[in-house]
Amino acid sequence: MTVQAEQRPGSGLEAEPRPDDVSVETPFRRFVSDFLESRIATAALAVFAVIAFIALFAPWIAPTDPYDLAQVSVLDSHMPPGSTAFDGRVFVLGTDGAGRDLLSAIFYGLRISLGVGVMSGIIAMAIGSVVGLAAAYFGGRVDTVIMRIVDIQLSFPSILVALVLLAVLGKGVDKILIALITVQWAYYARTVRASALVERSKEYIDAATCLALGHRRILFRHLLPNCLPPLIVVVTVQTAHAIALEATLSFLGIGLPITEPSLGLLIANGFEYMLSMKYWISVYPGVALLITIVSINLVGDQLRDILNPRLQK
Amino acid sequence: MTVFIIRRLLQSAVVVAVMSLLVFVGVNVVGDPVDMLINPEADQAEIERVIRDLGLDRPLHEQYGYFVVNALQGDLGDSFIFGQPALQLIIERMPATFELAIAALLLAVVLGIPLGVLAGLRPDAGWSRTIMAGSILGFSLPSFWVGIMMIMLFAVMLGWLPSTGRGDTVPVLGVEVSFLTRDGLSHLLLPAINLSLFKLSLVIRLARAGTREVIHQDYIKFARAKGLSETRVVLVHLLKNIMIPVVTVLGLEFGGLVAFSVVTESVFAWPGMGKLIIDSLHELDRPVVVAYLMIVVLMFVIINLVVDIVYSILDPRVRLQDTKA
């Protein structure tokens, strides 16, 4: 039973094949080949890899540093895509209202948007997993109270929860992180609890309990790894959602401060030039945002298909 | 049943109490209430008078008591910017927001159900795939950006529709509405489409899933065996049966539309309560922010309460499960 449970795809992520059994189909390898079956998902993963690369290495690959005043000239402001600056540089995607190269600003913006989205996702996942595991493992009153809180929170739309918190906390990177984490944790808690409830009644947990292992060890070494597959799907969906929500809040001017120019802020900056036909300032950051969200969602869709035991052949 | 309703009422009361506590703590403990609640242009004597009026010289638990008592009497403070009671300001803006939300809901239903049924009837046809791809986009696209693109296309480039404001309004039963004038309708169209896109995608998916399920049921086969025309089978037998989940979800989603109208109203400068709260947040008009949050949360609590009670009447399993827990 234990062996079977541990061989579910996704939970075997750490089970790298040893060089001497190359021909054996490990869970990880099956997971990879299942994933690559869908061309759209593979392409989406490749696109996301490129975006992540850009986000990580923005300062080294961006043509200019858009926030270094020595490299920016107001004389270059509002230049349409493809125009050339007086010093011979080409602005592939044009420049914004302050003369910054839009392509570079988008690279830096991706770094901030993706950073905030992924970081909030990881922290929310950690909190939600622990809370969900505790609810499923201890059951009874603990479970009732936790799940009631989760249900109540999920009955409010995410933007309202974020609005309440930001109105109370104010502006700032830490504040928006708190808001995004609060919006997300309940989804993780609910997902982990649901799969932990199923796993808890299996023999390997009974076996671990009989061995008198500590609560913490059973929870994190035995229960959690087997709850991973649905959790991975939720991570993708929630990260995409967090990135979109951060962009929305920043666009509204209640998210990140102007010192952290994420894609949402870039779009907001361009909005004022929209009426004078300078479309590129908000169109291109929006396209970057869109490609990011859609690629994450497509990867998530494929993960859901291959990690869902009900859909398995 | 009574036990169930009492439990739910208590739960709702707890949620509202927690919210008021959260907002109170946010305003009075995290921030400096003198800064937030008193008009910065007030002089020293005025500041002292307000501090005494608001009871800011009292211990915290007494202050919270004042806040609750005032809130229960509908007094959530006066707006710094408008000088009017905050509650009144929000109630004045409510019809605009509700008009927008209802228009968006109608669009989602009127377009979404036929599209979803079509996609469900011929799931492999090219246009069905197009509809479903469109609905995925509707879920993924951040609505504020779509709104900007709509303004760019229809207002700036084509010049067909106005991009800001509400246009001419006419009073109906004492409430100003836009949709009855030509000018108002043209102002309403873009924001309503923008707000409805997400729900439209949702309705398409629900209608498609419902159609795929219902189409294989025996009563559909029987209706066909009776020799009814395909149109009648779809319009009467199928449509009636897919409406239940669609209507339920839409009832729940109306509150979501009101909450998300914050975004659409800001993009299209629609003078509703969503734009009011964003403006108030920028101008640090705390009484309006507090009043908006309390009203919207109260609205959600009431919607959820009503939905729960209606559900428990329709489905006894829900309340039995709950009284046990």
If you had to describe this structure to a student in words, what would you say it looks like?
The complex is a heterodimer of chains A (313) and B (325). Chain A is mainly alpha-helical. Chain A contains twelve helices and two strands; from the N terminus they run H-H-H-E-E-H-H-H-H-H-H-H-H-H. Chain A has helices at 2-6, 27-36, 39-61, 102-138, 140-154, 158-169, 173-200, 203-210, 215-226, 228-251, 263-274, 280-307, and strands at residues 83-84, 90-91. A two-stranded antiparallel sheet of chain A has the order 1-2. In chain A, a hairpin with a 5-residue loop joins strand 1 and strand 2. Chain B has 325 residues and is mainly alpha-helical. Chain B has a domain at 93-282: MetI-like (MetI-like fold), CATH 1.10.3720.10. In chain B, strand 1 and strand 2 form a beta hairpin. In chain B, helix 1 (2-30) packs antiparallel against helix 12 and helix 7 crosses helix 10 (230-268). Chain B is globular and about 85 Å long. The A-B interface holds A 144, 148, 152, 155-157, 159-160, 163-164, 166-170, 240, 244, 247-248, 251-254, 264, 267, 271, 274-275, 277, 279, 282-283, 286, 289-290, 293-294, 297 and B 11, 15, 19, 22-23, 25-27, 30-31, 136-137, 139-145, 148-149, 151-152, 156-157, 163, 255-256, 259-260, 262-263, 266-267, 277-278, 281-282, 289, 293, 296-297, 300, 304, 325.
Strand order of the largest sheet of chain A: 1-2
SSE topology string of chain A: HHHEEHHHHHHHHH
Which strands sit side by side, in order, in the main sheet of chain B? Answer: 1-2
What overall form of chain B do the CA principal axes indicate?
Answer: globular
Largest interface, with counts of residues having CB < 8 Å to the other chain, equals: A-B, 38 and 45 residues
